[in-house]
Design goal:
The chain is an alpha+beta fold. Strands 1, 2, 3, 4 and 5 form a 5-stranded antiparallel sheet that branches.
């Protein structure tokens, strides 16, 4: 599933990882977390911590890992702009959220997501 982000894409992605920063806005974080909540099976993410079978990649002087982690870990560690945790995961540069399956959210869950976006998204489905 591809998501479109404002800063966490394109040429900015490599430079943000190299400088240990993140540009995922709160609304983008909410949408990505919502999708991860409904994911089934391991999720393909870039992490700053190793997991079983992860592949190391170095950006600048920082070490990252192409990893497959469970959806709960992906949600818990997904980094948002202005915050940093001991363990962080990032949407891949190609903006793909990769997982084995997806359990479609109910209409009420979708509406709840839009409600929680507040001033970030003025779309109000009826």
């Amino acid at each position: 599933m591809r998501i479109s982000t404002r800063l966490e894409s394109s040429v900015f992605w490599d430079s943000m990882r190299a400088s240990d920063t993140c540009g995922l806005s709160p609304d983008e974080h909410a949408v990505a977390s919502f999708l991860l909540k409904h994911a089934r099976g391991a999720c393909g993410m870039v992490t700053d911590f190793p997991s079983e079978g992860s592949v190391t990649r170095v950006l600048g002087k920082r070490r990252y890992f192409d990893s497959r982690i469970d959806p709960a870990t992906a949600m818990k560690t997904l980094r948002v702009a202005g915050a940093k945790s001991p363990k962080n995961s990032y949407v891949r540069r190609d903006e793909m959220l990769e997982f084995a399956g997806f359990e479609g959210p109910s209409e009420d869950e979708w509406l709840g997501l839009f409600d929680q976006l507040g001033e970030w998204c003025f779309f109000a489905p009826e």
